Every structure is written in structure tokens, then in C-alpha cells.
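Entry 14. Ran structure prediction on the chain below.
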Amino acid sequence: QLLLVESGGGLVQLGGARRFSCTAPRTISSEFNTYSMGWYRQPPGKQRELVAKIDTNRNTNYADCVKGRLTIPRDSSRKTLTMQTNDQKPDDTAVYYCNASRAPRDSWGQGTQVTVSS
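Output, C-alpha cells:
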């Protein structure tokens, strides 16, 4: 399993932007490259859901609700997955989790709270 450390949560203005980072400090770049990476979120009172993911070939998959508002570049040299969000909406309020996936198990970050406020 990977240790994943997230940052970037907090209060965001409606329509604003936010940048999240997820790093894997205890791994090397070559190992980081073998994981598919992604961001999930858990809104209040709801189940965890996929936001976006990027595989080892840099193919991406975005939830319909964030398409056009979000990008998730990965930087192997820095062992970092970034999530840049724009035009934040009230439904974006959630705890956001970084995920690293490689069979047979997933690794998760501790989660970072984002609250979109008007």
C-alpha cells in the first residue's frame, strides 16, 4: 500500500477555483507510475463516489458532474496527483479522498474537507 498525503481542502467561494494535491512521499517514481490514481468524494450523508481518475497511460475518466470543470494531471517525478477544480458548486461540498489503485488492493488518503460557500 501507498501512503498518500492530501492537501488543498478548505472553504471555497461559489464559482471559485481550488487546487488539490496528493503525494506519495514514501515511494519512488517508478513505483508511483504503476498505480492508477484518482480522486473520490463523499458528500454529507451520501456514499463515496468517483470524481476523476487517471490510469498508468494517462487516460482519464471524469464524472459527468465535473466534466469541463476539473483536470487531474499526474507528475511522476514529484509522485503527485493534482486536481484543479473550477466553477465550484454547492454540490461539490464533500470530503475528497485520493486513491491509488493497483491489484490486489487500493490505497487511500486521509481525506480533505471542501465546503463551497456563497
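The chain is about 5% helix and 50% strand. Will compare against last week's run tomorrow.
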